[in-house]
Amino acid sequence: MTALGIIGIILAFALLMYMIMKGFNIYLTVFVCTLVVAVTSQMNIYDAYKVHFMTGFTTFFKNNYLIFLTGTLMAKAMDITGAAKSIAKTIIKVMGTEWAFISVPVACGVLCYGGVSAFVCSFAVFPIALQVFRAADLPRRGIPGALCFGCSTFAMIAPGAVQIHNNVPATELGTSYMAGAVNGFMACGFMLVAGIIYLHFWLSKAKKNGEHFIAKEGDDFGEEGDSHLPNFVVSLLPLVITIVLVNVKFNGVAIAPVEAGVLAGAVSAVVLMIKYINPKELPKHFADGAAMALLSITNTCAVNGFGGVASNSPVFGDIISAMVNLPGPKLLGLVIGTTVIAGICGSASGGLGIAVPILGPVYTQLGIAPSIVHRVMALSSSALDSLPHNGYIVTVTNGLCRETHKDSYGLTFALTVIIPLIGSLIGVALFTLFPNLP
């Protein structure tokens, strides 16, 4: 039964990836994959759905709905006020078009670190990236990689980042968003520097091969005057408010819980930049944000429900034992387990939602500090999650940028899979050598 159960879990994960890549409904996908695990593991099928699936689903919803809601409202506020675009435009203007390969991911990273969702960051920066890539005559197919690198790697999983990727381990392990700060910042710093170097290399090589910027039908290069956008400093204030409220502590306690801090950022954005929006449309924007948050979290909950079934399979303990007992640093198994689960889910947050409750306690019981477990899992969640079936990757590549995976995913893969994976291993080395750093 053990061999059949292990084969069943592997088959279910492969089927999950295949069905998601083929565009099947996420709920149908997880229901089918749950059935595969239940049958091959000889689990009671009714209990698999009623008990294990729904426990995984509802637990993730309970722990994370408020951060999804407030995060979506924050992103909505930064979007409708023009603050996100103002920040992006200013950074790119200061750095100049000659440094487009740096300014685009940096602009995305600033927004992402402050709590703006990857989707909103990409949509805000894309029109500006289009202009600077054209001005510098850089190949257009490099834009998806630059956007995805800035939004879904170094800034998303850095210590202090107001993102779900810090919230999930913090909630489960009782840690802070700044857990593993020194080593975490060094690992993320490597991702940033290595990514910029590789992006520069890729763009230079493409230009040497005769590639130029070639506009696509529908590209809009109209310059939006600064009068239509809020001041850069004012635009930045909501992000600063959020980061301070969530990360600054008095007597060991943060000024505000993360949900309250993010909500304060959203409210401050509306209050400070009210003249750039129509107040009468705020209820509609709130309703849209709430609906988006509900859709986003239930999709992730569905994947976590499947994870709940897989983790209760009779053979799952054997799989965990194999990862924990890998030769080398203890944390190596944690990296492999987290990044593989995130890759199968096609989601860093979804992968963490499954991996942290399962692997977190195993490694803390081995004597590893919760702060180290938190940061290593956050770092490793940002590698295989960016495989071609990732919803964000598909949206940015095919939808927003109107490029094909064939033309542009090679760069995206290097920037969002290979480099974060190396960064995760660097994190393992740092935490193994210097476990007592704050």
Automatic annotation (TrEMBL):
Keywords: Membrane, Transmembrane, Transmembrane helix
InterPro entries according to UniProt: Glcn_transporter
Annotated transmembrane regions: 6-21, 26-45, 65-87, 99-130, 142-162, 182-203, 260-277, 289-310, 331-356, 413-434
Source taxon at top rank: Bacteria
GO CC terms: plasma membrane
GO molecular function: gluconate transmembrane transporter activity
Record has Transmembrane as a keyword: yes
PANTHER family: BLL7963 PROTEIN, GNT FAMILY GLUCONATE TRANSPORTER
Name used for this protein in its record: D-beta-hydroxybutyrate permease
Protein source organism: Intestinimonas butyriciproducens
